[in-house]
Write a structure and sequence with these properties.
Layout lengths: L20 H8 L3 E5 L2 E4 L1 H20 L3 E2 L5 E3 H7 L10 E4 L5 E4 L4 H9 L10 E10 L14 E11 L2 H21 L4 E5 L9 E8 L5 E6 L19 H9 L2 E3 H7 L8 E16 L1 H6 L2 E3 L5 E3 L1 E8 H11 L1 E2 L2 E2 L10 E5 L5 H16 L4 E4 L5 H11 L3 E5 L1 H5 L3 E5 L6 E4 L1 H8 L1
Parallel strand pairs: 3-7, 19-20, 19-21
Antiparallel strand pairs: 1-2, 4-6, 5-6, 7-8, 8-16, 9-10, 10-13, 11-12, 11-13, 13-16, 14-15, 17-18, 21-22, 22-23
Helix pairs in contact: 1-9, 2-5, 2-9, 10-13
Length: 437
Amino acid sequence: MRLSRYFLPTLKENPAEAQIVSHRLMLRAGMVRQSAAGIYSWLPMGYKVLRNIEQVVREEMDAAGSQEVLMPTIQPAELWQESGRYDDYGKEMLRITDRHDRSLLYGPTHEEVVTDIFRNAVKSYRDLPINLYQIHWKFRDEVRPRFGVMRGREFFMKDNYSFDIDAAGAVRSYNKMFVAYLRCFARLGLTPIPMRADTGAIGGDLSHEFIVLADTGESAVYCDKSWFKTNPLDLDVDFESDLQPIVDEWTTLYAATDEMHDAADCPVAADQLYEGRGIEVGHIFYFGTKYSTAMGATVTDSSGADVPVEMGSHGIGVSRLVGAIIEASHDESGIIWPESIAPFKVGLINLRAGDDACDAACDKLYADLQKAGVEIIYDDRDERAGVKFANMDLIGVPWQLAVGPRGLKNGVVELKRRGSDGDKEELSIESAIARLS
């Protein structure tokens, strides 16, 4: 994509309404614009990052055996009345009526809808286990939306729901999600820390929230430093095997939020204690028969008896992850994207647009890298070099490839890795293409 043709409305100054780094940088980098309080439009670059994160999440859910569906954003109130949550959920639920005075709501979550789908389609234990997921928009009417996409009212979320014949099967499904989440967040360049958590409005008695480390996070984090020696991407996972030992290993590395730290006095030796801050980006729940009993979601077991299914639900805040990754990976110049979800891999900078040699070299690099399947943003504008470098730093493209007349006279172009303390490398055009391909 040529930057001269790309819709990227960047800002030079920090917006006054932005209180945290990710909100400031997402506005300055032209990723989002606020439509209403806590509701954002995603512009081309922001939407590209959102879709890249969505794809990583999708791949890990598919690998864990979950099947993708798409459920409606607008839900009938009677399903929530049937489950008993309609009045309990509170003012965060946006309640509406249609022209026929039917009570509806904008879904804050989908336990009721998916349970209704299940009970009308599955009748035998032989069809279990089943795990269904979607990546979809949700709405929760936060009393005070703030921090950009980190605490918005409308948000993009992956939510999935497991159905099992017994508690042991439900725990196996829970463990699959536990391990899949470890892998998912690590692929996004984040350090995932699972912590035992309150089940809140979802219900049940087994829950973990996943915290990623960020200096500007809302949650205080205390854990054993040995945690950081464990790499979830090293897990050679067979999701049909017993995953309990992996879950046990991760949950025995002591980790706590500030509330748990106060209650447990954090029993870790002082020289082994890590203290930092983090952001919640995922939450998994096992809540047994809370919804299946209330809504009559039963199957016939091996003895011929009708029994309520055991259920769990598991969420990842996909749009929140965009902000969380920026909070965890930025510097004073702008965003530093991990390659796995960067909007573009390479930022090509023509240091003297209009110079025949520079234009020809850039055109070759642009064409050859595109042919090699490299996503590239080419700054072909008639702007000063300093403006172009600052813009590439702001939007966080992992690699910057600069072409100027002085370098070309020596047969080289300049390559820099974003976030590498300014280290630059000179190499030939052919070598640059080979390196970046």
